[in-house]
Amino acid sequence: MKLLVEQSALAHALAQTTRAVSPQNALPVLAGVELSARDNSLHLYATDLTTALEAELPAEVVEPGQIVLPAGPLTDLVHRLPTALVSIESEGATRATLRYGRNQATLNGYGEERLPEFAQLARDQAMAVRLPAGALADVTRQVLFACARDETRPLLRGAVMELGEGRLVWAATDGSRLSQVWWPLPDHLETPARWVWPAKAVQEAARLAGSEEEPTIWLSPHLVQLAVGAFRLTSRLLEGQYPEYQRVIPQQYLVQCHVELAALRGAVERVGLIAQRDRTTSLRIVHEPGMLEISAVSQDLGHAVETVECRSEGQSLDILFNPHFIMDVLKSLTGEEIVVEFAGTQSPARFREASGSTYQHILLPLRQLV
Amino acid sequence: MKLLVEQSALAHALAQTTRAVSPQNALPVLAGVELSARDNSLHLYATDLTTALEAELPAEVVEPGQIVLPAGPLTDLVHRLPTALVSIESEGATRATLRYGRNQATLNGYGEERLPEFAQLARDQAMAVRLPAGALADVTRQVLFACARDETRPLLRGAVMELGEGRLVWAATDGSRLSQVWWPLPDHLETPARWVWPAKAVQEAARLAGSEEEPTIWLSPHLVQLAVGAFRLTSRLLEGQYPEYQRVIPQQYLVQCHVELAALRGAVERVGLIAQRDRTTSLRIVHEPGMLEISAVSQDLGHAVETVECRSEGQSLDILFNPHFIMDVLKSLTGEEIVVEFAGTQSPARFREASGSTYQHILLPLRQLV
Questions:
Q1: Which of B232, B247, B262 is the last residue of a domain?
Q2: pLDDT tens per residue, range A86-111
Q3: For A151, which of A22, A365, B223, B253 is 20 to 30 Å away at the CA?
Q4: pLDDT band at B188, cuts 50/70/90?
Q5: Is residue B303 part of a domain?
Q6: Closest residue of B to A78, CA-based?
Q7: Does position B129 have pLDDT exceeding 70, yes or no?
């Protein structure tokens, strides 16, 4: 392989594609990025076996070929090269030499080891969906934090995307909280369908989509693909029956409070300082008409109590939450005013923006024995 | 204790003083900050037993008294308070309640445990020295990185300050490198004297001095003190005989190179990428008249070689350095051009700025058996 490529284009393409590389690799070669030179372009490919990122950039190819090079060192080096052009020349798959001006660096490759080929998505047999502008960014911000972190239910580590009934819906749940966001999307599917994306695939897709107006994704039963400019993300979808989470969303609430977001967030943040230091401490919310009282008691640290005014309807109520989870949802909300609804001391509560939002978060309270 | 204080002043004072608290504490109470209310002021005090930071801020004291509160939670909480005024009321040394508007938080204190009293510096028996503007900041940037990190020679973990012969000199060495910076300071001492500051004391003093024109420090044989506005730092000095480091500075050099700093730094940074991944790899510098060749070979990763033009005098030479140490000194230098001097393959090299600098760095090469 021998080629000449622009330093800035290569640095950018490496920075984007090598994000697919996982810090923990089952195989050494998965720490690598594959460079393939053919026709007048250089193709980059990196994967963690679940998600693949690829880039295609113009290059003057003198001799076609390919090699896998260590992703981190190559990206760091190319990022720091001082010249406008870089030549890359490989000796088989053993090593490649980068020449820049009169200087050079040689990186060892992985020899005969190749990056595993990633499953191909046949676009002509896949479904194309134009996503609403900013949808992937919203999902990243408002939905992904509710994904499960542990491995006990792998499917819950992903976010579910649903199409049908004139809507696009994204949701994620870890079993004790649920985030859901939706958009009208009239042109699709009479029978609803679901796809569970790995959280990392959503993040990387949102990053690739960037400010792209209405990015198109292709969906097959097992794969999803997004292409933006010279970059392409392909990800396996998670397999299995995602739980019917809609059933946990209360249909009726006993209490509805309209409350200023900044005031509630400030109170929860301060009282949470007491609660969060002590892993056993919960955040208590007491509703009295026109008022929410936020409090926490920590054996070690002390206690705090704040009141926040609200416009509310419904009964008095005393309910306990995980302080981290409450902060997470308050950070994911925007706007001046939010609506907090309680369905009872042991029933899920709902948080949403007051003005025409299509985002809601359902949070299970902590159990109270007495 | 009962008092009323401005939130912004208290938040700032806590942020400054609680920097004295060490993350690892021998005694639980050392994680605390002491609040003492007397007359019309609130006094804050925190220490790691080596360095103490204090602040004095105006307060409306209703009832004098004092209490030690956990530094981290108190600082975090006060930083987030929404009101202009905060009242603090303690119940003995057991706990204190902060009230802000109609809300409140109570933090547990350390009971009868008190912060150890810090040695007092008697200013009338101490020597006052007006430091040149920016001196402490320069020492932080150009000298402290050469301090030892390990515990084998505790004195080398500090920086030595010398007064005498019309100069103020600061230096630090870890045994394989030495940084030294000096200023003319005509008014002091006929017999030279030395004080070894803990590195943390220099850092905190530089931070306190900030943009203060010519900060005054007070020196006793065992203590140093700096006061800026409402803040005061007092630190123990390190005891012992600091090595006579001047003897390791070569008086004569075989090679002198004038080289563009940015060009050399770029080359060392790129070649260093190869060397730094592999802890056994060194950075090789070869001098030929008019040229420095920088190279590294890593068994695992590959190899790199760059040349940098220079104006040089002296013989050809081949010398090995620790790649991290070379990068450290190149980061500490400023200006367009630097001077690099070699005294031989096994002798210390010197790095300094080309134009009228009073900073120099001496770096011992790695040994070469063959």
A1: B247
A2: 999 999 889 999 999 999 999 999 98
A3: A365
A4: low
A5: yes
A6: B270
A7: yes
Domain count across chain A: 3
Q: Which of A80, A102, A302 sits opposite B105 (nearest CB)?
A: A302
A135 is in which domain, residue-wise?
A: 123-247
Q: For A7-57, what is each residue's pLDDT tens digit?
A: 999 999 999 999 999 988 889 999 999 999 999 999 999 999 999 999 999
In angstroms, what is the C-alpha Rg of chain A? Answer: 25
C-beta separation of A285 from A293 below 8 A? yes
Residue B160 · residue B241 · CB < 8 Å: no
Across chain B, how many H-helices and E-strands are there? 6, 26
Q: Give the separation between CA A164 and CA A184, rounded to whole angstroms.
A: 10
Domain closes at, from A247, A282, A315: A247
Q: Does B106 touch chain A (CB under 8 A)?
A: yes
| A267 and A240 in a common domain | no
One-letter amino acid at A112 equals E
Which of A89, A110, A270, A308 best probes binding to B when mutated, by most B CB atoms within 10 angstroms? Answer: A270
Q: Helix count (H) and strand count (E) of chain A? A: 6, 26
The CB-side HSE value for A51 (13 A sphere, CA atoms) comes to 21
Phi and psi, residue B53, nearest 5°: -120, 135
**Same domain assignment for residues A202 and A257:** no
Chain A contact probe: residue of B269, B273, B293 with most A CBs at under 10 A = B273
Q: If pLDDT is split at 50, 70 and 90, which confidence band does B73 have? A: very high
- Asked if residue A115 is part of any domain, the answer here is no
- Flag if B70 and A273 touch (Cβ within 8 Å): no
pLDDT at A188: 62
- C-alpha to C-alpha distance for B121 and B124, rounded to whole angstroms: 9
